[in-house]
């Protein structure tokens, strides 16, 4: 890992480069993704299967839709240990999502006036589950369960080469609509629909640069959760455990050669200890070693406050801090892990909070995937004769101030003077 001191031009350039480069991947993929999306939008199943054969290496003879029997067989073929772990993860994810779900409510801002909101689920969502470098059954749990808790009636999963564990997870959750397709072509099919794959209202889940580029392209026609880049981890620590910190940095770095792994600390001894520990531990992990060589960085700050300010400026996807008291200064982060025992991979699998998180600084604007991504809030209002007498005159005044006389007349038509 590069060991730098804050204030140096090298540290500034390094952090700026790590921030600026995070969107470059999917921007480079945009021209190819656009051709694929346009092709599937116009050509339907024929184009979808053609791209699947070319890009996913799946014969056109292989059915697009995975049968429920295949998902059931995957569940039955799994080990008891894996089935138990999937059940534990699903239980905790569901419980957390239940606590997140917004509720209907009403209020009475004036006598005779009722306002409120009604929470309604989306009609259909698509869950993208990557299956390239690693099988990710956990991503199906993290995307489908909040949708189920929200009450979404139709959930369609897509994955180019779904692992047995992913199909087993689908069976566990009762997800019956699963398509063997990936990449930009899957995103296009979900967004616009084909003869065999009906369109959805929103697409969620991470993917490679082509998937992310395609999500950006369809975002005005179909909802998306976020544009996710390579995994990021920041550890901001003054008294952490060097072994635990190094292990977490490597764990997140092994997701992708472009993953970002950063330690921010004013404790020079801790910084050096972590750098040494990472160097020793990363040798047996090829992908993590590549990511650490590219983007692994330790910054020794002048003060703890400077490390905290840098953390919020980076707005990392995953953040580890020393203690619960540190939560007070955290403003921008996707998911926060408190203390040296809170291993970040537990959040990837079994804790309950969602692991689909904002990257590339988007934690300044939003949190991770949640039930809120699968519902819409419909506002309602009702007036009685007393209510319109009380608020109608003010409405007329404002309508006249804006020059919208039809608005004013619509209020007067209810017997209100003004």
UniProtKB/TrEMBL annotation:
<feature type="binding site">
    <location>
        <position position="407"/>
    </location>
    <ligand>
        <name>substrate</name>
    </ligand>
</feature>
<dbReference type="InterPro" id="IPR016161">
    <property type="entry name" value="Ald_DH/histidinol_DH"/>
</dbReference>
<dbReference type="Pfam" id="PF00815">
    <property type="entry name" value="Histidinol_dh"/>
</dbReference>
<dbReference type="GO" id="GO:0051287">
    <property type="term" value="F:NAD binding"/>
</dbReference>
<keyword id="KW-0368">Histidine biosynthesis</keyword>
<feature type="active site" description="Proton acceptor">
    <location>
        <position position="318"/>
    </location>
</feature>
<feature type="binding site">
    <location>
        <position position="407"/>
    </location>
    <ligand>
        <name>Zn(2+)</name>
    </ligand>
</feature>
<feature type="binding site">
    <location>
        <position position="185"/>
    </location>
    <ligand>
        <name>NAD(+)</name>
    </ligand>
</feature>
<dbReference type="InterPro" id="IPR022695">
    <property type="entry name" value="Histidinol_DH_monofunct"/>
</dbReference>
<feature type="binding site">
    <location>
        <position position="255"/>
    </location>
    <ligand>
        <name>substrate</name>
    </ligand>
</feature>
<keyword id="KW-0479">Metal-binding</keyword>
<keyword id="KW-0560">Oxidoreductase</keyword>
<feature type="binding site">
    <location>
        <position position="231"/>
    </location>
    <ligand>
        <name>substrate</name>
    </ligand>
</feature>
<comment type="similarity">
    <text>Belongs to the histidinol dehydrogenase family.</text>
</comment>
<feature type="binding site">
    <location>
        <position position="128"/>
    </location>
    <ligand>
        <name>NAD(+)</name>
    </ligand>
</feature>
<feature type="binding site">
    <location>
        <position position="402"/>
    </location>
    <ligand>
        <name>substrate</name>
    </ligand>
</feature>
<feature type="binding site">
    <location>
        <position position="255"/>
    </location>
    <ligand>
        <name>Zn(2+)</name>
    </ligand>
</feature>
<keyword id="KW-0028">Amino-acid biosynthesis</keyword>
<feature type="binding site">
    <location>
        <position position="348"/>
    </location>
    <ligand>
        <name>substrate</name>
    </ligand>
</feature>
<feature type="binding site">
    <location>
        <position position="318"/>
    </location>
    <ligand>
        <name>substrate</name>
    </ligand>
</feature>
<dbReference type="GO" id="GO:0004399">
    <property type="term" value="F:histidinol dehydrogenase activity"/>
</dbReference>
<dbReference type="GO" id="GO:0000105">
    <property type="term" value="P:L-histidine biosynthetic process"/>
</dbReference>
<comment type="pathway">
    <text>Amino-acid biosynthesis; L-histidine biosynthesis; L-histidine from 5-phospho-alpha-D-ribose 1-diphosphate: step 9/9.</text>
</comment>
<feature type="binding site">
    <location>
        <position position="348"/>
    </location>
    <ligand>
        <name>Zn(2+)</name>
    </ligand>
</feature>
<feature type="active site" description="Proton acceptor">
    <location>
        <position position="317"/>
    </location>
</feature>
<comment type="function">
    <text>Catalyzes the sequential NAD-dependent oxidations of L-histidinol to L-histidinaldehyde and then to L-histidine.</text>
</comment>
<feature type="binding site">
    <location>
        <position position="252"/>
    </location>
    <ligand>
        <name>substrate</name>
    </ligand>
</feature>
<dbReference type="GO" id="GO:0008270">
    <property type="term" value="F:zinc ion binding"/>
</dbReference>
<keyword id="KW-0862">Zinc</keyword>
<protein>
    <recommendedName>
        <fullName>Histidinol dehydrogenase</fullName>
        <ecNumber>1.1.1.23</ecNumber>
    </recommendedName>
</protein>
<dbReference type="GO" id="GO:0005737">
    <property type="term" value="C:cytoplasm"/>
</dbReference>
<feature type="binding site">
    <location>
        <position position="208"/>
    </location>
    <ligand>
        <name>NAD(+)</name>
    </ligand>
</feature>
<keyword id="KW-0520">NAD</keyword>
<feature type="binding site">
    <location>
        <position position="252"/>
    </location>
    <ligand>
        <name>Zn(2+)</name>
    </ligand>
</feature>
<dbReference type="InterPro" id="IPR012131">
    <property type="entry name" value="Hstdl_DH"/>
</dbReference>
């Amino acid at each position: 890992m590069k060991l730098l001191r804050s204030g140096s031009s090298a540290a500034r350039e390094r952090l700026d480069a790590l921030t600026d480069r995070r969107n470059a991947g999917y921007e480079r993929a945009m021209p190819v993704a656009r051709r694929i999306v346009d092709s599937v939008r116009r050509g339907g199943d024929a184009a979808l299967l053609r791209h699947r054969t070319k890009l996913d290496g799946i014969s056109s003879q292989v059915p697009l839709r995975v049968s429920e029997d295949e998902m059931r067989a995957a569940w039955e073929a799994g080990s008891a240990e894996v089935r138990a772990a999937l059940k534990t993860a699903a239980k905790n994810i569901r419980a957390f999502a239940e606590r997140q779900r917004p509720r209907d409510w009403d209020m009475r801002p004036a006598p005779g006036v009722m306002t409120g909101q009604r929470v309604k689920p989306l009609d259909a969502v698509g869950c993208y589950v990557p299956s390239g470098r690693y099988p990710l059954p956990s991503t199906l749990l993290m995307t489908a369960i909040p949708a189920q808790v929200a009450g979404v009636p139709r959930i369609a999963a897509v994955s180019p080469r779904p692992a047995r564990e992913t199909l087993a997870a689908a069976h566990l959750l009762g997800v019956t609509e699963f398509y063997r397709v990936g990449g930009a072509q899957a995103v296009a099919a979900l967004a616009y629909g084909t003869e065999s794959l009906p369109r959805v209202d929103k697409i969620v889940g991470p993917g490679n640069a082509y998937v992310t580029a395609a999500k950006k392209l369809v975002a005005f026609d179909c909802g998306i959760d976020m544009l996710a880049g390579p995994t990021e981890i920041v550890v901001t620590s003054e008294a952490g455990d060097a072994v635990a910190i190094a292990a977490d940095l490597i764990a997140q770095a092994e997701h992708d050669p472009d993953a970002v792994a950063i330690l921010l600390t004013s404790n020079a001894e801790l910084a050096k200890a972590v750098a040494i520990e990472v160097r020793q531990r990363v040798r047996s992990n090829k992908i993590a070693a590549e990511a650490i060589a590219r983007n692994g960085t330790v910054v020794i700050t002048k003060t703890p406050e400077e490390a905290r300010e840098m953390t919020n400026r980076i707005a990392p996807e995953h953040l580890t801090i020393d203690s619960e008291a540190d939560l007070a200064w955290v403003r921008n982060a996707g998911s926060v892990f408190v203390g040296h025992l809170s291993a970040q991979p537990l959040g990837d699998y079994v804790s309950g909070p969602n692991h689909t998180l904002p990257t590339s600084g988007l934690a300044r604007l939003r949190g991770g995937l949640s039930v809120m991504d699968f519902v819409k809030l419909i506002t309602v209002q009702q007036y009685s004769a007393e209510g319109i007498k009380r608020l109608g005159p003010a409405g007329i005044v404002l309508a006249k101030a804006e020059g919208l006389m039809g608005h004013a007349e619509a209020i007067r038509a209810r017997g209100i003077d003004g």
